[in-house]
Amino acid sequence: MIRVAAVGDIHMGPDSQGLLRPAFETLPDCADLLLLAGDLTRHGTPEEARVVAREVRDLPVPVVAVLGNHDHHDEQPEKVTALLQDAGVRVLEGEGTVVECAGTRVGIAGTKGFGGGFVGRSAGEFGEPIMKEFVRTTRRSADSLHAALKELSDEGCAARVALTHFSPVADTLAGEPLEIHPFLGSYLLAEAIDTAGADLAVHGHAHLGSEHGMTAGGVRVRNVAQPVIRRAFNVYRLGAA
């Protein structure tokens, strides 16, 4: 059995240094790896990224992350990524990684994702160039997630996890105003997950949403935004005990 700890939307800044570290140091007792589902900072500044890096540095379990929209706000995602990577975090964007844990190989495919909405109420690649680019941004993200998951299927992984910031399903947005659903995720991410295959999908972003959801293909989806799970992390189990 593989124990996956996950949290997103921790929104750390200089005044929150050390807030999560005590809980993270208990991870070896309850989890085999930690997934960070984006919005790790408040405004995406290097100063805030250093706070996150200190929070997760030298943890005794593998840490894998994607960035969120907040982590892009200061337009320095490359610096945020580099600071996290220097602390030992594997930061994914349209790629996968394999971690050894619980005596087996676990594959994680990650991308920030983007918006666009869900089946029956989604944006299309039609009209103005800026509208087309909005949808194409999500499609490129979904395509990269699909490719990464497919590649992991050839790596002999016992389990595969899709890690995003934006949601792949509307289920986990229950509680959010319907008017903003198109800005919280896209069905294209779910299509990528279902066609490539995964054992679990984890995302954040929807602070007023719900934890539990499922893709049309039956993949479990979990919204791990901290305002939703209300703790330092939640743990999900993959495989038979």
Top keywords for this entry?
241 residues; five-stranded mixed β-sheet; globular; six-stranded mixed β-sheet; alpha/beta; 7 helices; single chain
Q: How would you sum up this structure, described in words?
A:
The protein has 241 residues and is α/β, with parallel strands linked by helices. It has 7 helices and 13 strands. The protein has helices spanning 21-24, 27-30, 46-56, 77-86, 129-153, 187-196, 226-229, and strands at residues 2-7, 33-37, 63-66, 90-91, 95-101, 104-111, 117-118, 121-122, 159-164, 200-203, 212-214, 220-223, 234-238. A 6-stranded mixed β-sheet has the order 5-6-9-10-12-11, with helices on one face. A 5-stranded mixed β-sheet has the order 4-3-2-1-13. Strand 3 (63-66), helix 4 (77-86) and strand 4 form a beta-alpha-beta unit. Helix 3 (46-56) runs parallel beside helix 4 (77-86) and helix 5 (129-153) packs parallel to helix 6 (187-196). It is globular and about 50 Å long. It starts with a strand and ends with a strand. The mean pLDDT is 96.
